[in-house]
Amino acid sequence: MLRPHGVRNKWLLGVLAGVGGLLGAWHLWDSEAYGVLPPCLLMVSLMTLPIFGIFVLLYGTDALRWNRMVSGKDLLARWRVDRDQWYRFCHLNNALNAQGDRPYCRLPTTGQPRPDGVEVFVGKTSVMVDGNFYHLPRVVVKIEGLWWHEGPPAFIEFHCVTEDDSGPSAWTLRIPAAAGEERKALEAIEYYRKDRPIKTVEKRGVR
Q1: 101-126: pLDDT as tens digits
Q2: What residues contact 56, with CB distance under 8 A and at least 6 apart?
């Protein structure tokens, strides 16, 4: 997911539209000229407002996580992967996805060139790679496995399971490490190892 603020604002527009529908229904309610329009506005607004409001809260929470991580409050590590390192990581990531023996990695930009490199943030409850933000809350997302691959190119690999109404969904998140910044990556792994009940930690080498 890209920066959550934009997604939150889109749902917020829906909330404002719902409020406008309620005000419009109230204003037109006693006017016979509009027929069934006021009751329809009222019904649609009452049905959609709770849904829009829930998504505003969800993405608003993500926006707060993003703000805290980028400002350094919940930041564990930050580095910039150069162009060549990013290219090698993308090639390896695509090859691992093609093998099909592990959950697919959710990084939508891994086929795109980055002449200036890619910035990586690793936070306590969120990570961001090349502007793509992923939150890792304790309740919804469980980290089943956490590996450090020495490479080259070196990267962190999260094996995650998301629990929702449709059941568990497994996915992988790979975080490229910058050359010379491996110590920061290992310190982040150590934080997650102590902070969460993870089944497998720091298995080295690409399987």
Answers
A1: 778 887 766 667 788 888 999 988 88
A2: 8, 11, 12, 15
